[in-house]
Design a protein that fits this description.
With 343 residues, the chain is an alpha/beta fold. It has 13 helices and eight strands. The chain has helices at 2-30, 38-41, 67-73, 90-99, 103-106, 110-115, 126-133, 167-180, 192-200, 205-227, 254-257, 281-289, 304-329; strands spanning 49-55, 77-83, 138-143, 160-162, 183-190, 234-239, 258-264, 272-273. The protein starts with a helix and ends in a 14-residue tail after the last helix. InterPro entries: Alkaline_phosphatase_core_sf (IPR017850), Phosphodiest/P_Trfase (IPR002591).
Length: 343
């Protein structure tokens, strides 16, 4: 009897030691940051494709109805209070979005982007990074602003770039790409919203007409991705570079520097509001979702709220695996029926 008791106590002690060592390892090595989370290491929350739908000049949507965009926010992470960079000019803002550096580092202006080919070896765009990591990937850019086809990016990394055409033509080319090609990374940018703001004032009826049209196109964009069975393997983001006030957006007013953002992908929580988002974060979110390490000079962040969600989800998975392993290893008849530990 005493021998049985000693054996039982020793048995419990071994389990205790195992648990402590496991917990120490997990907490110190795996779960301290999202970069080291097994969710990234095991690639269980990563994607095969990224689709980025950009609306120039949409700001925080200015209380527009845009039902498709607002419904999309409920499927993943979102903010209506994000921040762009200064100065709030298109080249500076889009440049910071895709190079994940401040304007003084990428040095793009509207005039430069429209007239000079990109040749800065000191910065790396999301598109170039994707090409380096996936040499055979198909990468596409369809934009209404000609700068995207001249000096915004390293054009040699694309399979196809189309720019300097109307929104409906841009959209048509982007949709054809989704339906008939195999995009790893696709960027589509619409410009009518910003043009309407410059022509008729931002947050006016004509502006809202253009914004609602962009929302309708986003709905068709999502439907095309769904029809190709890409939804379960894709990160989809909808972004804007800046807002506007009266007929301008070059100043630092609140209506100009505030922007919306939404993203959804495999395993994302629903309707999770994120805080402290800036346009600098877009490239990093996309890069990490594709499993790529990012350049050291990138200053964007991965949303803390999303990172914490994935870490917690991984903790729950690890708990279950360890409980089942412990119960099996030490001879308990039913997994999870005796010892349970929690991170």
């Amino acid at each position: 009897m005493n021998i049985d008791l000693l054996f039982y106590v020793a048995h419990l002690l071994l389990i205790y030691i195992y648990l402590i060592s496991t917990l120490t390892f997990i907490n110190s090595s795996w779960l301290t940051t999202i970069e080291n989370s097994p969710y990234l290491l095991n690639r269980t929350n990563l994607v095969n494709r990224v689709f980025i739908f950009g609306i120039d000049g949409a700001g925080t949507l200015f209380n527009a109805e845009v039902p498709t965009i607002r419904n999309f926010m409920k499927t993943g992470i979102y903010t209506l209070n994000g921040t762009t960079v200064m100065p709030t000019i298109s080249a500076e803002c889009w440049g910071s979005m895709f190079y994940s550096v401040y304007p003084e580092s990428h040095a793009l202006t509207n005039d430069i982007a429209e007239n000079v080919k990109m040749s800065n070896p000191n910065i790396t765009s999301l598109f170039n990074l994707t090409r380096k990591n996936f040499p055979d990937a198909e990468i596409y850019s369809y934009a209404a602003w000609k700068a995207f086809n001249v000096g915004m990016f390293e054009n040699s990394v694309f399979n196809e770039t189309v720019a300097k055409i109307k929104d409906h033509k841009v959209f048509e080319r982007g949709m054809n790409c989704i339906k008939n090609k195999n995009p790893k990374l696709l960027f589509l940018q619409l410009d009518d919203v910003d043009l309407s703001g410059h022509r008729y004032d931002y947050a006016t009826p004509r502006y809202f007409m253009a914004l609602n049209q962009s929302s309708i196109r986003f709905s068709l964009f999502l439907e095309a991705i769904k029809e190709k069975n890409y939804l379960d393997e894709s990160l989809i983001m909808i972004v804007s570079d800046h807002g506007g006030k009266l007929k301008d957006h070059g100043l630092g007013d609140e209506e100009i520097i505030r922007v919306f953002f939404a993203a959804s992908g495999p395993g994302f929580p629903e309707n999770l509001e994120i805080f402290n988002y800036t346009v600098l974060d877009v490239a990093k979110i996309a890069a990490w979702s594709l499993g790529m390490a990012v350049p050291e000079d990138w200053v964007g962040n991965y949303p803390k709220e999303l990172g914490n969600y994935f870490i917690q989800k991984q903790k729950q998975l690890v708990e279950k695996e360890r409980n089942d392993e412990i119960n099996f290893k030490y001879g308990f008849s039913k997994p999870g029926s005796f010892f349970k530990f929690h991170l």
